[in-house]
Design a protein that fits this description.
Layout lengths: L2 H10 L2 H9 L4 H8 L4 H14 L5 E3 L2 E11 L13 E3 L2 E16 L3 H13 L6 E5 L2 E7 L3 H13 E3 L1
Helix pairs in contact: 1-4, 3-4, 5-6
Length: about 160
């Protein structure tokens, strides 16, 4: 493979660097040194060419309603069983009413890009995420009860404008 192909692959292995290239906020020499692929000047030039070919971030305004549901838990662990529809279910593991957690539910124009944005923002705010998922027009994140209010604000802010 060529050095340019190696540089593209290395960037794709590090999504934060791909986002920074798309945003135009990369010090190419520092990125080349970080990637440690060989001749830093050649890698920096390859990164500049790669960045020129990437689509720019395009902020999208989304129509989303965000709500908070306190008192959810893991069925079989936090609660014995629940007659309510699960808040989140993955491969037979269900979170439903009756536990020590809080669910933040976003409904509307949500997708995996919105979920990625939400999780990144929650991580940046040091909010612990116990579970998360998106299906159809619903996105859910489950957090410790004490972090529910903070998570609600972060999710509302995150889904209002998604950078795709």
């Amino acid at each position: 493979m060529s050095l340019a192909a190696d540089a593209r692959d290395a960037v794709r292995d590090r999504p934060f660097l791909l986002d920074a290239l798309r945003a135009g906020v990369v010090n190419y020499a520092a990125a080349a040194a970080f990637l440690d692929l060989g001749d830093d000047e050649a890698v920096a030039a390859a990164l500049r060419r790669f960045a020129d070919d990437l689509p720019e971030f395009d902020p999208e305004s989304r129509d989303v309603t965000v709500t908070m549901r306190s008192g959810v838990g893991l069925v079989g662990e936090d609660i014995d069983e629940s007659d309510d529809d699960p808040v989140l279910s993955v491969a037979g593991v269900e979170l439903a009413s009756g536990g020590p957690l809080t669910a933040i539910i976003a409904e509307g124009e949500v997708d995996t890009t919105a979920l990625t944005t939400v999780l990144g923002r929650l991580d940046a705010e040091s909010v612990v995420v116990d579970a998360a998922g998106v299906a159809g027009d619903t996105l859910a994140v489950v957090v410790p009860r004490r972090q529910g209010a903070a998570a609600l604000q972060v999710v509302e802010s995150a889904v209002s404008t998604i950078y795709a």
